[in-house]
Specification:
heterotetramer; A alpha/beta (349); B mainly alpha (414); C alpha/beta (517); D mainly alpha (418); A: 2 domains; 6-stranded mixed beta sheet; globular; B: ABC transporter involved in vitamin B12 uptake, BtuC; 5 strands; 5% strand
């Protein structure tokens, strides 16, 4: 009985090993690999949005695209090595936590193209994809201030890291700018750039926390809330939807599309068009005349539509506000308005 | 005589503790205030049916002094005469301290007390259900450390089945079944196979995390329609919901919240006043004794552990069907473990578990309010607070809580 | 009329053991059948078979002439069979009423426990049989004797008419035993039949109508009390002539080794359980501490060995103050300790014998050099002690848990007595052992005395104290009732002292501490 | 005399056969878990349903294909490709270019690298089990040790490696030990159960690490990211294949093996280990024997924490080179499985860690080739724990004979006090 089992086992082992090693190798397609950070590809945030860009490239450009999830810090290099060994043409890493490993691989594989979301330049063959989210957050803050009836707007984050906080910084500055322009006194709950601290739920998982924090905000009189915490924000949207007399501001993508069930309470969304940046990067690499990144980076701004805000819910703000927002957008592009980046960086020193 | 002197010494210690609290209020909160500052506590909630009672605005320093005087008075009385219910008075003094903290934090600002109490209860719901699950299992001497996994399973199932059927009750029922199934797995391992119960629970946690995450990434994420369950609507109870403060907090809730409150009461009554409860407690304390009187120890344990699993499943379903209307990986975020701590803190009684969970819920909602009021404590430290509270509570205040005598021991027919 | 209970050819096997080998028993209505035998003779197994806790491999049971199958306690209860276990089956945190009604609850309103009705019935039963018990008392707060009454009430509540009493007198004072016998007689008068299990010859002779002696799982013989005496029953029980007294020389006490003065000790739950106890133990004598279990002896020993802090008073060992010393300091000062519960306190059952033999010397040379254990030395020592103390084991690497109780105790005795200590404290040294092991351990304690050590023996068995001790300290409710030299000790007097009654009415207040002072 | 010898010989033979049988149950547990894992993979693969739409035979074929692809890539990722190894070796011999040979070893080195922190963490939990303590806090101890080890790693400059590396390792040990000693102390002094306290300390340690590494925080690198500075080169653990930096197999693995030998020696050959085991098996007996039970409890938890800390030291000094604010690893719960699987014996832990290392390395390859979510490893691990903890299930399933009961560690003792 046991002997037979052994024979069977070893047979299975041998065959599976033989088959397993045959994997890999793609046709003439451009091979693009994406390495997520620990949130995984279904984080409802930057991993998901970046993957959307790759998916679009698969559909529209006919590339061979795939992703590898990371569960722990040491997985990044493992996954990068996996793609390097598969001789991927472009490797996209998502999140600043992968910067060190990306830099390392980029220097060792100068012929491979890399792109990293949320981090700046790392070398000639790496394209940094960064976003001036404060600019978009500024517009959202301005719109929020215009939309509030209670004079209080709120925001909170998952964990206090720069890519999260920068949304909140722009938001606060936008509200203040509105106050300045309209002589109002709209208050921001949940973030203070000067203190570099605010309301954080401490994770990107517990949607219930998002709901409870939203309820507390509403009880304290806020009627616009911007959650910067991945799926936790959907808990906020649910709370606001049930209450009905407040607004949510989506982040990363247009929530009226990605979370359509909440579209009635979504004032607008702060767009961080990572998918566009990723898609553009893939497209550039696929182009016939592509000659390497040569240290060229991508900074998503209002100017190049790398960041922006989604259309504002109709009737939510007074009629003139859209025009004002257009003007502000132009002023930001022209560098006439401070969106808070400088002060925020200073507070980090 | 010796025993008496020890008692007086303890009484004196408590008196000093109360005075220290008073001194802390003076030192910590008073210096940062000015005479012109005013604190506002609001009590009305928007959209609630409760009769409005307005808000309370008072001088910050005045409020602080009042609370300090209260604590000093209680401390002095304790030193001089001593209270019979020391722990009750301790509660009052701690409450005074928290109020002083809030008075200080909300200086030149306002805070909605009713809102905070409401958040306290709602945040306590999943923790209480987790703790109740623990009570059910441990009262018959099966340790359940797999509550977290059972909750996750319940949450996942309720999201999936709720979405498929678009019926909250079916979703809830599915979560109960899934939780019960996980409970049955624990029961079989603990009772039939006599596996170390903590290890069995750990296995359930790992397995449930893996299964829910795996199926979530295979199905729920790619097909959003599978992750759009309906939710329970609020059912304000007639008349009761119009009472100020109490109405919005207690009587304007969804069915699972009422269900939780009813479960606490029912399990408490069942445990201490019915045949099932008597047998359960006997099995947890002295299974042989129960066995020799013809009580089926194994059956009692199977039933209780499966029921415990169902309650944990309900806790998961609450998060989905009564809170956020979707499942996300690891969305329980440690509530099962906090519930376990609440069970111990509550001394294995349902009402105690509720009380302990409310303390955790309060710590949670308090830190949100404090962060909104821009208390200059880094958010990370505010986030640590509930865990620190748990440790302090376990180490000091409850001292040695006594679990059911046979807790964790598999029963063998001799 | 058929006998009320009849067992025919009951056989029960456990892996490697034949616990009951074709046992036949007959119990007549209104009579007491005594089941006599040593520990391990198969009495408890037989009764567990009868009570449905075990299923017999062979044999038949007849109740009132009807053949019955008993698959669990529920069946036994339904047939009117009830059992008072040697270790009480009571839940300490429940009340008397709750304990009694458990499994047969009175219910009101279809759901709720009806404690009043049950309490009323308990009250009736206690009136009827002279069992005075408060139905609302918490069982854990009751003294042992009362707990036993609760157990009997449990049976009567279930209308049992065949009562099995398993070693009911083990935890009682002679006076309480007397009370129990009165209860038994009133039960018989109401037509109940009783199986009385014991290994105490005197009691069996006093209460029973017929006697069956078990040995090694078989019936060794049966007897009628009026035709038997202690000696004949004992030889039936043990299978050979036994010497019921221990041979020893008269003690030659020398200087005091242990001096205890006004010692106060708290028990669990912050009650004082040892109250101002003073006595001494001299080199070359055995002092026996007599008393019903739970009168502070356990805490006294724990305090003397450093396991429980003293609240007041002083303990001096060889002139050195050790009142607040740690167990290790006390051990190193020259104390051996045979703990009361060998499996719980004295051994690590999963360890081999060799590892158990080094439990208090593991850190000393030659067992350890620095922190490194010396395996050769451990083995050598184990081989030597196993041979010297007659531990019956296949190997020194056998886990202690697989040895018999007697051999387990010998391992502890070997470990403790092999050291050149001047003080030996032995708590219940022979509890639950067979006669052979008891004799052996007694002889070792006496050898130790004769070598000049001071020996303190605590035992709940009055016979053990009477046969071993040179002086007897009697404890009651944490106090020393009296200290009696063996020459002046009589069974009856010591029994009265154990029950808190001073036989000498005039000296009651004076005698308590005179010896120690 | 000679008779005695032969009986002893027989007994020995029986014992060694028993040992093989003891290995059989875990093996069957793993196989069973893999089979159930395959069921999960197949059931959740839509292509299988499509294939069944075409016909029953096609469906069956597809099932085999799915399973073989999944587990094939799994084994290839865990152990490598034998053919490639041979090819690489022959190239090396003929041309002197060893890079192919080294590259072919990559999967194997990944397995060993994943196994290294597992050995440390598994030893931590196993040591706790031996001492009757249930350390669920390896994760938190890992975090705190990460902070201390990385601090020494980056802040100390100008010291040679043979001073820097031991110092950084020591920092990790001390950090973990301190964090482990807290619940030990609380248990010894107040009876608060270590399970709850270690869980609480896990959450606290995450927040603490977040605070320390927060941008602008005390240990932040200062490039706008919540990560620590990179450690000095002198603090790096020696890499074995510097020619191929993708291979991050380092001397840490051998430190882990040394740690296992040390724990074995400590537990079974020293008086300290004797105390730890006695307290674990029977704290009352330990107290009666004059051992200082509270001190032993604190010591056990500190040692356990120190071992968990070494896992962090390995990951930082040998693999990542810095500490990010989300350092999470899941080692805490995995370690429980490892200790259990290894029967709380140090060498058993090494074996089970190798298994889990293979599981992790294989799963990553399985993700890349067969696109099976990584979460499958959790399912497999959960199942393996269940089957190992309840060997009766496996024995019943495969009709194996019941082995002789030997000395096992007392795992936990409920909420009971010392």
């Amino acid at each position: 009985m046991l002997k037979k089992l052994w024979v069977l086992l070893s047979l299975v082992l041998v065959t599976t090993m033989l088959v397993g090693c045959g994997g890999g190798g793609a046709g003439g397609k451009l091979k693009v690999g994406m390495v997520t950070d620990m949130g995984g590809v279904d984080d409802k945030s930057f991993n998901a949005t970046s993957w959307k860009g790759v998916q679009r490239a698969i559909d529209e450009l006919g590339i061979d695209g795939s992703y590898l999830e990371s569960k722990q810090q040491t997985d990044y290099a493992t996954n990068l090595a996996q793609y390097v060994n598969q001789e991927a043409d472009l490797i996209i890493t998502v999140g600043f936590l992968l910067a060190d490993d990306t830099a390392d691989f980029a220097s060792r594989y100068p012929d491979t193209n890399f792109a990293i979301v949320d981090f700046g330049s790392l070398g000639d063959n790496v394209r940094g994809l960064t976003f001036s989210t404060d600019e978009a957050g500024f517009l959202a803050g301005y719109a929020a201030a215009a939309a509030t009836k209670t004079g209080k707007v709120a925001t909170f984050g998952g964990i206090n890291i720069p890519t999260v906080a920068i949304f909140m910084v722009g938001y606060e500055y936008g509200v203040n700018y509105y106050n300045q322009q309209h002589g109002t006194n709209v208050e921001v709950l949940g973030w203070e750039t000067a203190a570099n601290d605010g309301v954080f739920v401490g994770n990107f998982e517990s949607t219930d926390d998002g709901r409870r924090v939203a309820e507390t905000f509403m009880n304290e009189g806020a009627d616009v809330i911007m959650p910067v915490a991945g799926p936790v924000g959907l808990g906020t949207a649910q709370a606001v939807k049930e209450r009905g007399n407040a607004w949510v501001i989506g982040v990363d993508t247009d929530w009226t599309v990605s979370a359509a069930e909440y579209k009635d309470v979504i004032l607008t969304s702060v767009l961080k068009n990572m998918d566009v940046a990723v898609f553009d990067t893939i497209k550039a690499v696929q182009a016939d005349d592509f000659a390497g990144f040569n240290g060229e980076n991508y900074v998503g701004t209002l100017a190049n539509d790398g960041v922006g805000i989604a259309p504002i819910a109709s009737g939510a703000v007074p009629a003139g506000i859209s025009d004002e927002l257009e003007q502000i957008k132009a002023d930001i592009i022209a560098g006439k308005i401070n969106t808070g980046w400088a002060e925020y960086s200073a507070s980090l020193e | 005589m010796n025993e008496n002197s020890k008692d007086t010494r303890r009484a004196r210690t408590w008196g000093i503790v109360f005075l220290v609290f008073a001194a802390l209020m003076l030192v910590l909160f008073l210096p940062g205030t000015t005479g012109s500052q005013r604190t506002t506590f609001a009590f009305d909630l928007e959209l609630s049916e409760a009769l409005p009672i307005g808000s309370l605005t008072f001088s910050t320093q005045g409020g602080l002094y009042l609370l300090v005087v209260l604590a000093v008075f209680l401390g002095a009385w304790q030193l001089a005469k001593g209270f019979k219910q020391v722990y009750l008075i301790l509660g009052v003094v701690v409450l005074a301290f928290v109020l002083a903290f809030l008075t200080w934090a909300a200086r030149d600002n306002s805070m909605n007390m009713t809102g905070m109490l409401q958040a306290t209860l709602l945040r306590a719901v999943p923790i209480t259900l987790a703790a109740l699950s623990g009570v059910m299992c441990e009262r018959c001497a099966v340790i359940n450390i797999g509550i977290e996994g059972m909750m996750l399973t319940g949450a996942f199932t309720s999201a999936l089945i709720g979405s498929l059927t678009q019926n909250v009750w079916v979703g809830l029922f599915a979560a109960l079944s899934a939780g019960g199934l996980m409970g049955a797995l624990l029961a079989v391992m603990a009772i039939r196979y006599k596996v170390d119960q903590i290890i069995a629970g750990t296995a359930i946690n790992i397995l449930a995390t893996g299964l829910t995450s795996y199926f979530s990434s295979r199905y729920l994420q790619s097909i959003p329609e599978l992750n759009r369950p309906p939710t329970f609507v609020q059912l304000p109870l007639p008349v009761l919901s119009r009472i100020p403060i109490v109405g919005p907090v207690l009587f304007t809730n969804t069915a699972p919240v009422y269900l939780m409150l009813i479960l606490v009461a029912v399990i408490h009554v069942m445990l201490f006043y019915t045949r099932w409860g008597l047998r359960t407690r006997a099995v947890g304390e002295h299974p042989q004794a129960a066995d020799t009187l013809g009580v089926n120890v194994f059956k009692t344990r199977y039933v209780n552990v499966i029921l415990g699993g169902m309650i944990a499943g309900l806790g998961g379903a609450y998060l989905v069907l009564s809170s956020v209307a979707r499942f996300d990986e690891n969305m329980t975020a440690g509530r099962g473990f906090i519930g376990l701590a609440a069970m111990i803190f509550g001394k294995w009684s349902p009402i105690g578990a509720l009380a302990a969970s409310l303390i955790f819920g309060f710590a949670d909602s308090l830190r949100t309010n404090l962060a909104i009021l821009r208390v200059p404590i880094p958010s990370q430290f505010l986030l640590m607070a509930p865990y620190l509270v748990t440790m302090i509570v376990l180490a000091g205040v409850v001292g040695r809580a006594n679990p059911p005598a046979a807790d964790g021991q598999p029963y063998e027919k001799q | 009329m058929p006998p009320v209970l009849e067992l025919k050819g009951i056989t029960k096997r456990f892996p490697g053991v034949l616990a009951n080998d074709h046992i036949d028993l007959t119990l007549e209505e209104g009579k007491v059948l005594a089941l006599l035998g040593e520990n391990g003779a198969g009495k408890s197994t037989l009764m567990n078979v009868l009570y449905g806790l075990y299923t017999p491999d062979e044999g038949e049971i007849f109740v009132r002439g009807q053949k019955v199958d008993i698959h669990g306690p529920g069946d036994a209860i339904a047939l009117g069979i009830g059992m008072v276990h040697q270790h009480f089956m009571l839940v300490p945190v429940l009340t008397v009423t709750e304990n009694v009604m458990l499994g047969m609850e009175s219910i009101k309103n279809k759901l709720f426990l009806d404690r009043e009705v049950a309490a009323k019935r308990i009250h009736e039963i206690s009136e009827q049989y002279g069992l005075d018990v408060d139905p609302y008392a918490m069982v854990g707060d009751l003294p042992v004797g009362i707990q036993q009454r609760v157990e009997i009430i449990k049976l009567l509540y279930r209308q049992a008419d065949i009562l099995i009493l398993d070693e009911p007198t083990a935890v009682l004072t002679p006076q309480e035993v007397h009370g129990l016998f009165q209860v038994i007689r009133s039960l018989l008068a109401k037509g109940k039949s009783i199986i009385f299990i014991s290994h105490k010859l005197k009691e069996v002779l006093e209460i029973s109508d017929s006697i069956v002696v078990l040995r090694g799982g078989r019936i060794a013989g049966s007897a009628l009390p009026q035709e038997s005496n202690e000696r004949s029953l004992a030889s039936l029980m043990v299978g050979r002539e036994v010497i019921l007294t221990v041979a020893k020389e008269k003690a030659q006490p020398k200087e005091p080794v242990l001096e205890v003065k006004n010692l106060r000790v708290m028990g669990e739950g912050a009650h004082v359980v040892v109250r101002d106890v003073s006595f001494d133990v001299r080199a070359g004598e055995i002092v026996g501490v007599a008393g019903v279990q739970g009168n502070g002896q356990t805490e006294l020993v724990e305090s003397l060995t450093g396991l429980r802090p003293a609240q007041g008073g002083a303990v001096r060992l060889l002139g050195k103050d050790v009142t607040h010393a740690s167990p290790r300091v006390i051990t190193e000062a020259g104390t051996s300790h045979v703990p009361e519960d060998r499996q719980r306190d004295g051994l690590v059952l999963s360890y081999p014998i060799a590892d158990n033999l080094i439990m208090n010397t593991y850190y000393l040379p030659p067992i350890a050099r620095g922190v490194v254990l010396q395996e050769a030395a451990i083995k050598e020592r184990a081989e030597r002690l196993v041979a010297e103390y007659d531990v019956r084991t296949p190997s020194i690497m056998t886990p202690v848990g697989s040895l018999s109780g007697g051999n387990q105790q010998k391992v502890i005795v070997a470990r403790e007595l092999s050291r050149p200590d001047q003080l030996v404290i032995a708590s219940q040294p022979t509890r639950g052992l067979d006669v052979g092991s008891i004799e052996y351990i007694h002889s070792q304690l006496i050898r130790k005395r004769d070598e000049g050590a001071a020996v303190l023996v605590v035992s709940a068995e009055l016979d053990e104290i009477l046969s071993l001790a040179d002086r007897i300290v009697v404890m009651f409710e944490g106090r020393i009732m009296d200290i009696v030299p063996i020459e002046k000790a009589t069974r009856e007097d010591i029994g009265l002292l154990m029950a808190g009654i001073h036989p000498d009415e005039h000296g009651a207040d004076v005698v308590a501490t005179k010896e120690a002072a | 005399m000679s008779e005695k010898n032969t009986t002893q010989g027989k007994a020995q033979k029986r014992r060694s056969r028993g040992r093989w049988r003891a290995l059989l149950t875990p093996l069957m547990a793993i196989v069973t878990a893999l089979i159930l894992g395959a069921v999960v993979i197949v059931v959740t693969d839509t292509s299988v349903y499509d294939a069944f739409g075409e016909g029953f035979g096609a469906g069956l074929l597809r099932i085999v294909e799915v399973v073989v692809t999944a587990y094939g890539s799994f084994f290839a990722g865990a152990f490598g490709d034998p053919a490639r190894m041979v090819r690489g070796l022959s190239t090396w011999i003929t041309t002197g270019d060893g890079s192919d040979w080294v590259q072919s070893l990559y999967p194997l080195t990944e397995t060993l690298r994943y196994a290294t922190p597992y050995i440390f963490a598994g030893l931590a939990v196993a040591l706790g089990f031996r001492g009757g303590l249930f350390n669920i806090g390896a994760e938190g101890q890992y975090f705190i040790a990460g902070l201390t080890t990385v601090f020494v790693g980056y802040s100390l400059t100008g010291v040679p490696w043979f001073i820097h590396v031991p110092l950084a390792l020591l920092a990790g040990i001390l950090g973990g030990a301190a964090w482990g000693a807290i619940p030990g102390y609380l248990k010894a002094k107040t009876g608060a159960h270590e399970v709850i306290n270690t869980i609480m300390l896990n959450y606290i340690s995450f927040r603490l690490a977040e605070y320390m590494l927060d941008v602008g925080g005390p240990m932040a690198r200062g490039d706008g990211r919540p990560v620590s500075p990179v450690i000095q080169p002198s603090a790096q653990l020696t890499q074995f294949f510097p020619s191929n930096p993708n291979i991050r197999f380092n001397v840490g693995f051998f430190i882990a093996l040394l740690a296992a030998v040390f724990v074995y020696w400590l537990l079974f050959k020293t008086t300290i280990g004797y105390e730890i085991r006695t307290v674990g098996q029977n704290p009352r007996a330990a107290k009666y024997a004059g051992m200082n039970v509270p001190r032993t409890v604190v010591l056990t938890m500190a040692l356990s924490g120190g071992l968990a800390g070494l896992a962090a030291s390995h990951d930082i000094l040998g693999v990542i080179g810095f500490m990010p604010n989300s350092f999470s690893s899941g080692y805490g719960f995995d370690a429980i499985a490892l200790a259990l699987l290894g029967n709380s014996h140090p060498f058993g832990v090494v074996l089970s860690s190798l298994l889990f290392g293979a599981l992790q390395a294989g799963a990553r390859n399985m993700q890349a080739i067969a696109r099976v979510p990584l979460d499958l490893t959790d399912i497999l691990q959960g199942l393996i724990i269940i089957f190992i903890a309840a060997p009766a299930i496996i024995r019943a399933l495969y009709r194996l004979r019941t082995p002789d009961e030997g000395e096992g560690a007392v795992m936990t003792r409920g909420w009971g006090q010392l």
